[in-house]
User: What shape does this take?
Amino acid sequence: MYLPRIIPCLDVRHGRVVKGVNFLDLSDNGDPVELAERYAATGADELVWLDIVATVEDLELATDLIRRARQGVDIPLTVGGGIRTVGQVGALLDAGADKVSINSQALAEPDLIGRVAKRWGSQCMVVAIDAQREGDHWQVYSHGGRSRTDWELGAWLKRAEQEGAGEFLLTSMDADGTRRGYDLPMLSFARSLIHRPQIASGGAGSIDDLENAIRHGEDALLIASILHQGDTDLPHIKEALIQRGVAVRWPI
Assistant: This one.
């Protein structure tokens, strides 16, 4: 039986982990390498590391930090933020990433998805999507939620999958950092259109939220605030889910 993945997310800004609400009001939550090692050692199934300002500020990829993190992390590591070329993908994989996450550049250059998938396999190519509700649909945004695109969520999901996306990291801008639960309607809509795995992102604030999402059909959950700010830890999350009859990957 396939068991859901619990995936801590490290949103990195200028070498520090930050977290905000609806992509705004960022607070410092610590050193990314230290947090990556801690989460890997205490039960994370995978890790996602996103440089949230690399695209906006046109920064170089922090391969030195990824290389340091890889030394203390023995679980799958997805890295994203500021990736614009196939060469940069190669540099991140050489530094220790297992998968790459591309958002803004994929929107600007959809065939980049296929070129990465063709060279390293679709399992390496994660397409990250930030979407916000607008009336009866969800609109896709780029550049860390700063720029509205012409893509409606459903159309972009289909296009990205056709190009070769192996997985989707789907963040609800409405739910991000609110701790009011995942955007289940948006996630259901996306899951009805694609055949690749999706990682639910945005809104986790309690064990109830994780349980609801898993029972709702999500098989990979991104968490951030509840870990970074000390509300709970991974062993407690997994123990609580098991006690509620939710199967997760265990032992840690």
